[in-house]
């Protein structure tokens, strides 16, 4: 990867972040992420496929409902929107290349400000897409996915594809069309739909059936357009149960898979699973990944973590090695992501105001995943983990258990088997033993 800067350098105090190993004292180095190191037959960079999220790292300004921005970006000073967008992209590619992050992700409005004029927005987006094409070429950085922001503008307050007003739906379509065009022009690997406002605040004013049908029709229409225009990548739906709406239609992995199946979208759509969305849905992250993997739709993930003491999407950088190790077990057993990677949908805290904090945040996140990858590989290949789990189900591997799995036994057969074999033994699930295996390899 080549470091790419603009005329100005925004992160002068930092040069390339390199792997120095677990013993290093350098806080601006990787202890675990060694891009070319081979783990289970693949270099780390190919397992992990890290991406930087444009919106958190170069747009989000630290403002919260109680206070004004605290991240005062040096790349946010121009009054001309295109000049400002270009400086922001200079900063983004400087950071991404210094971090050795191979991919990035963006919403349309992250890369350039939009107006209320559709043609003007398309023009602006294409100006900055051309700029990005050059940056990608110079650096080797690629687009993991593009998306459209269908939740910030006030016109989307009652939904985008699920809005009761058809005109609003068409405005959403205009944005999605341009964002798909941008993704294709930038050779993006995937395209994401996160339905931030696709849900309801009150069922009293909502025709849920009709709204969900509109959402499905919208996804089909967008997918057909992209395919007609040569897009070969995956579409991802990103589940989240609530926030900003009270109830979102893409609640969790199971719900989204059911929806995609019902509306015949499973050939083109997979899932993008986010850690903090899983926990908001009352699941562990591992659960959401496993559900997707079992259905063959583990597309990609948004990496972050929540806060156990509150119920918001706090989007903190990941640092929980146990949680991420358990996640990597699922991802490795699934053979990796289908087309996606690990996008840091995470933001530094409001009071982490130094440029260096952006580096520390990503270094910590990347090292957590790299370490978890190494640990998970050992657990899968050196420990009893897989064997013990398989053994729990061994009664289905032969005899009547096997016949049951094959659908060859009636309810009477099962009753007779029970009557002939007496009371089942008490068999331990060994949960603590399994938990100890994880910690032993960390
Ligand atoms: C918000 C979502 C959002 C998507 C992209 O909670 O995570 O950031 O990833 O629209
Ligand atoms: Ni996300
Ligand atoms: Ni989120």
TrEMBL record:
GO terms for cellular component: cytoplasm. It is found in: Cytoplasm. InterPro entries: Xyl_isomerase-like_sf, Xylose_isom_bac, Xylose_isomerase. Its cofactor is Mg(2+). Keywords: Carbohydrate metabolism, Cytoplasm, Isomerase, Magnesium, Metal-binding, Xylose metabolism. Binds 2 magnesium ions per subunit. One of its GO terms (molecular function) is magnesium ion binding. Its EC number is 5.3.1.5. Mg(2+) 2 binds at residues 274, 277, 313, 315. The active site is at 107, 110. It catalyses: alpha-D-xylose = alpha-D-xylulofuranose. The keyword Magnesium applies. The keyword Metal-binding applies. One of its GO terms (biological process) is D-xylose metabolic process. Mg(2+) 1 binds at residues 238, 274, 302, 345. Belongs to the xylose isomerase family. Homotetramer. This is Xylose isomerase.
């Amino acid at each position: 990867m080549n470091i790419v800067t603009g005329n100005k350098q925004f992160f002068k105090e930092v040069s390339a972040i390199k792997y120095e190993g677990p013993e290093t004292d350098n806080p601006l180095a990787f202890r675990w992420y060694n891009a070319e190191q081979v783990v289970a037959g693949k270099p780390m960079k190919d397992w992990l496929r890290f991406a930087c999220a444009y919106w958190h790292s170069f747009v989000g300004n630290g403002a919260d409902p109680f206070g004004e921005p605290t991240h005062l970006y040096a790349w946010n000073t121009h009054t001309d929107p295109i000049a400002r967008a270009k400086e922001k992209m200079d900063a983004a590619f400087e950071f991404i290349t210094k971090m050795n992050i191979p991919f990035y992700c963006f919403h349309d409005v992250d890369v350039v400000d939009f107006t209320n004029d559709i043609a003007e927005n398309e023009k602006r987006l294409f100006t900055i897409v051309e700029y990005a094409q050059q940056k990608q070429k110079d650096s080797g950085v690629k687009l993991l996915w593009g998306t459209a922001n269908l939740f910030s503008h006030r016109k989307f307050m009652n939904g985008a594809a699920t809005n009761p007003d058809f005109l609003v739906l068409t405005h959403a379509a205009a944005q999605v069309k341009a964002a798909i065009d941008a993704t294709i022009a930038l050779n993006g690997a995937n395209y994401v739909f996160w339905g931030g406002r696709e849900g309801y605040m009150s069922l009293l004013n909502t025709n849920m059936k009709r709204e969900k049908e509109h959402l499905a029709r919208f996804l089909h229409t967008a997918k057909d357009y992209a395919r007609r225009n040569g897009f070969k990548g995956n579409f991802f739906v990103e589940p989240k149960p609530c926030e900003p709406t009270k109830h979102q239609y893409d609640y969790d992995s199971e719900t989204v898979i059911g929806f995609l199946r019902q509306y015949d979208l499973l050939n083109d759509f997979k899932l993008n699973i986010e850690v903090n969305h899983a926990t908001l849905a009352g699941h562990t992250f591992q659960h959401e990944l496993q559900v997707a993997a079992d259905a063959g739709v583990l597309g990609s993930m948004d990496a972050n973590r929540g806060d156990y003491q509150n119920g918001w999407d706090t989007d903190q950088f990941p640092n929980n090695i146990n949680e991420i190790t358990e996640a990597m077990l699922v991802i490795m057993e699934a053979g990796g992501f289908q087309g996606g990677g690990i996008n840091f949908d995470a933001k530094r805290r409001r009071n982490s105001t130094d440029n260096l904090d952006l580096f520390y945040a990503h270094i910590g996140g990347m090292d957590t995943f790299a370490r978890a990858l190494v640990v998970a590989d050992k657990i899968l290949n050196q420990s009893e983990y897989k064997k013990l789990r398989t053994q729990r189900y061994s009664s289905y591997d032969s005899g009547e258990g096997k016949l049951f799995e094959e659908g060859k036994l009636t309810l009477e057969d099962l009753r007779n088997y029970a009557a002939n074999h007496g009371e089942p033994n008490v068999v331990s699930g060994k949960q603590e033993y399994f938990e100890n295996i994880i910690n032993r390899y960390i």
